[in-house]
Amino acid sequence: MKKLILAATIAATVGLSTSAKAVVKNDDDSKSISYVVMNQFDADFSGAKNVTWTLTPTSQKADFVLNGEQKTAFYSLTGTFLGVTEQVDYKVIPDAAQKDIAADYQGYTVAQVIKFEASEDNTSSFYRAMAVDAPEQVAYFVDLKKDDGQELLVRVNQRGSVFFFKQVK
Would you tell me how many other CB atoms lie within 10 Å of the CB of residue 66? Predict the structure, then answer.
């Protein structure tokens, strides 16, 4: 169940990140984040800068910069590390997926690609929640937009298979 909630959180993150770029959050929820999560984050992402914490009804989330890359780490409410996301270039997804997206989603343009890397402990649970049998640790969420305002997300696995994920608009 928590993996399904994580998937929804990722979808929301992808859908909102484009519009949120203009908004700067001056404060964060760090006082509400568990001590265990703060310590685990410090160990997992040593050297992270500009860390902003968000507590949602389903997760504890850290937005941060590490080695010049903007990332987001997700933790369950009980403190389990679930995974990390980062925006990547469309070219990094498998060629087969790029061809399938071009054929199956004609008229759409790629707005952004978010790479989600599940923690090793949560990989199989995450993919069960995604209704996929693949025990892969990495998935890509591709945000596709049309000129008429339609927007959707597709999920791409490491083997290049493309799956419809969510209608955004």
Answer: 18
pTM for the model: 0.75
The tokens of 101 are what? Answer: 């997206």
How far is residue 51's CA from residue 48's CA, in Å, rounded to a whole number? 7
How do the pLDDT tens digits run along the chain, 169 residues long?
A: 444 444 545 554 544 443 343 334 446 788 889 999 999 999 999 999 999 999 999 999 999 999 999 999 999 999 999 999 999 999 999 999 999 999 999 999 999 999 999 887 755 455 445 544 445 789 999 999 999 999 999 999 999 999 999 999 8
- What is the CATH code for 2-167? 3.10.450.360
Residue that the structure tokens 């992402």 belong to: 45
